[in-house]
């Protein structure tokens, strides 16, 4: 039994069943036992591999995309570059290296990382040791001045979600309680109608059948409203890449990953990564509420293809040995292949009211 399991059992015993969102928040962010607070989950030795770890090409193309957005806005001299959930700092390092082609852009930047994990902050400090970086626990402390350029890769999928189930008598929230022997965590349903329905895409209520599950991420929708407000007010941009679905739909997408294998989300709290697919339609609606303008969602394969991933791979392959070329091809296939990251991962670009058109999305 994990230390966090014991704490969660006691909490349920005292306070009653807990929501999935509360459970995810404890599992991922508990200061002593939380998954992200106690380890580096990335890479072969961890539990999963993200696109920046697959190849430098991913971050380089995103860095050049930011430069193009800067030029589109007549090269403002004060850019607040924010990455949310920056992992080991690999993506930021690759973006900044590619952006060296525009020294004035780099000169205009202040770099801010939103990261709560002390373990990952340590990695980021080493990776970005040649840059001046400010760390934040949330967007609340990121300076308001400057044109906001925000980037997040695989952030929204890790934010806590609520799950609602349609029953014969209407929506009920899925809750986590204890079995009769008070030893295992089990699923149950709330007795009353959850107020969370107001945050659901209203189309789902008309389409749902008994047994269907709808997922709502208040933390993600709130973050989208905050980012959208700043993007619109400063004439900034946002680029958000995650796995999920373009149109809101019912379905249970909660998953737990440990050692690159799926496992029971309730079995080992704090020992596995918990994620859920991102509802990009609902996320886009939150951005629109602020006046910001989200572009039509693209697949990762489409977006990287438009940015010139094939040409970048060919450039890196020049004068490379056979092993290097094979690795480049494998990375290319993983990033854009429809059976790998290319179709599952989506890209949401967000511009301001004054500059709604974004490079690669038109």
UniProtKB/TrEMBL annotation:
<dbReference type="InterPro" id="IPR038375">
    <property type="entry name" value="NDUFAF7_sf"/>
</dbReference>
<protein>
    <submittedName>
        <fullName>SAM-dependent MidA family methyltransferase</fullName>
    </submittedName>
</protein>
<dbReference type="InterPro" id="IPR029063">
    <property type="entry name" value="SAM-dependent_MTases_sf"/>
</dbReference>
<dbReference type="InterPro" id="IPR003788">
    <property type="entry name" value="NDUFAF7"/>
</dbReference>
<dbReference type="Pfam" id="PF02636">
    <property type="entry name" value="Methyltransf_28"/>
</dbReference>
<keyword id="KW-0489">Methyltransferase</keyword>
<dbReference type="GO" id="GO:0035243">
    <property type="term" value="F:protein-arginine omega-N symmetric methyltransferase activity"/>
</dbReference>
<keyword id="KW-0808">Transferase</keyword>
<dbReference type="GO" id="GO:0032259">
    <property type="term" value="P:methylation"/>
</dbReference>
């Amino acid at each position: 039994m994990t230390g966090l399991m014991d704490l969660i059992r006691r909490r349920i015993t005292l306070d009653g069943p807990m929501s999935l969102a509360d459970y995810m928040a404890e599992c991922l962010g508990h200061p002593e036992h939380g998954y992200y607070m106690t380890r580096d989950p990335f890479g072969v030795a961890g539990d999963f591999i993200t696109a920046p770890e697959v190849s430098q090409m991913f971050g380089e193309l995103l860095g050049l995309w930011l430069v193009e957005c800067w030029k589109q806005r007549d090269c403002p001299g004060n850019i607040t570059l924010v990455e949310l959930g920056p992992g080991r700092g690999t993506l930021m390092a690759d973006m900044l290296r590619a952006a060296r082609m525009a020294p004035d852009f780099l000169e205009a930047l202040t770099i801010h990382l939103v990261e709560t994990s002390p373990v990952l902050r340590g990695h980021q400090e080493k990776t970005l040791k040649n840059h001046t970086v400010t760390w934040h626990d949330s967007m609340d402390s990121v300076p308001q001045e400057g044109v906001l350029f925000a980037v997040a890769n695989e952030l929204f999928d890790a934010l806590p979600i609520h799950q609602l189930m349609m029953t014969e008598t209407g929506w009920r929230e899925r809750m986590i309680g204890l079995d009769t022997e008070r030893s295992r965590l089990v699923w149950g349903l709330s007795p009353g109608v959850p107020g969370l329905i107001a945050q659901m895409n209203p189309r789902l209520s008309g389409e749902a059948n008994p047994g269907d599950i709808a997922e709502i991420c208040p933390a993600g929708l709130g973050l989208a409203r905050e980012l959208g407000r700043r993007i619109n007010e400063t004439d900034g941009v946002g680029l958000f890449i995650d796995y999920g679905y373009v149109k809101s739909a019912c379905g249970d997408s909660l998953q737990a990953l440990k050692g690159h294998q799926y496992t029971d989300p309730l079995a080992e709290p704090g020992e596995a990564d918990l994620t859920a697919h991102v509802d990009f339609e609902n996320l886009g609606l939150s951005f629109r509420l602020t006046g910001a303008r989200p572009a039509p969602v693209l697949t990762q394969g489409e977006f990287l293809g438009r940015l010139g991933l094939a040409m970048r791979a060919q450039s890196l392959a020049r004068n490379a040995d056979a092993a290097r070329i094979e690795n480049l091809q494998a990375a290319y296939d993983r990033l854009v292949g429809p059976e790998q990251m290319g179709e599952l991962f989506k890209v949401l670009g967000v511009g301001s009211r004054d500059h709604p058109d974004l490079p690669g999305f038109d």
